[in-house]
Amino acid sequence: MLVIDRIEGGIAVCETEDGRRELPLAGLPAGVREGDCLVCVDGSWQIDREETLRRRQQNHSRAAGLFRRKSREQSE
């Protein structure tokens, strides 16, 4: 599985368990964006929508927790 870290020009810079990988956008599904999880199915990349959603929700929850903690610390 790959996770798109950023898109620079026509290249998607992806993170893998083993490091970084760059893929041309032309070989990826239309509409890919930063944070999308990609899996290779039958030789082509597809967005794993379930994993993408799970990770986005997890990141949102973590960020919300950090903001709540920071807000409490400032009010003390």
Globally, the shape reads: elongated
H/E element order: EEEEEH
Mean pLDDT across the residues is 91
**Beta-strand content:** 35-45%
Total individual domains: 1
- Unreliable sequence segments: none
**Cα radius of gyration in angstroms:** 16 Å
- Report the structural category: alpha+beta
Please tally the helical runs, counting DSSP H or I stretches of 4 or more residues.
Answer: 1
What percent of the residues sit in helical stretches (DSSP H or I)? 25-40%
Q: How far do the termini sit from each other?
A: 43 Å
Seen as an oligomer or otherwise, the chain set is single chain
Q: Largest sheet at a glance? A: 5 strands, antiparallel
The side-by-side strand order for the widest beta sheet comes to 3-2-1-4-5
Write down how many β-strands occur, each being a DSSP E stretch of 2 or more residues: 5
Pfam families: DUF3006
InterPro entries: DUF3006 (IPR021377)
Protein name: DUF3006 domain-containing protein
Organism: Hydrogenoanaerobacterium saccharovorans
Please give a structural write-up.
- The chain is an alpha+beta fold and 76 residues long.
- It has one domain (2-75).
- The protein has 1 helix and 5 strands.
- The protein has a 5-stranded antiparallel β-sheet.
- A hairpin with a 2-residue loop joins strand 2 (11-16) and strand 3 (19-24).
- The N and C termini lie far apart (43 Å).
- 11% of the residues are buried.
- InterPro entries: DUF3006.
- Pfam families: DUF3006.
